[in-house]
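Task: sequence in, structure out. Protein: Deoxyribose-phosphate aldolase.
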Amino acid sequence: MDHTLLKPEATRADVEALVEEGVRLGVYSVCVSPSFLPLDARGLKVATVVGFPSGKHHSDVKAAEAARAVRDGADEVDMVLDVGAAKQGAFESVQADIAAVRAAAPSPTVLKVIIESAALTDDEIVAVCRAAEAAGADFVKTSTGFHPAGGASVHAVGLMAATVGERLGIKASGGIRSTADAVAMVEAGATRLGLSGTAAVLGGLESDSAY
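Result:
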């Protein structure tokens, strides 16, 4: 689980509380806005976002943001692709955009590509997942959680998993607020969850023997 706080009004104190809670809950990472880096995550991985939340940034700006994040200690970078380019079928441009960030944040930095699956058709989801794989990404991720079209869906996660198989990770994020939602995403193929309400989701696992 990526224990996440990306609200614009978040403060340094909020982020420190996030880390403390993340350590207590045993999450994999904390995901925060890049202005909070460098961050002492007390042994947790540190993830941040690039081109967030619209994706409508020049590729060189996204690349510079990613490079700065790595210098500031980010272990993982979650970038937003250009959804408009995907909608117009410019998948070579989408791939080039991802490749620019990959070059700026090479392995072992983990690169996740946020595709805003709720704003895409099935064919577009498949095409952007293929572009992300071709550009060297490590994960495809459903959503920013900020798009008006919505967040993660079981259908989108299943389609993403079917497209990239076990070659890439699948991160489901955006609107996952209950234990049932989280379990459904994992069953559909998600290998990572992005959650802001992590404690409630884990609490449901502990209290319901059905899980």
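The chain has a mean pLDDT of 96.
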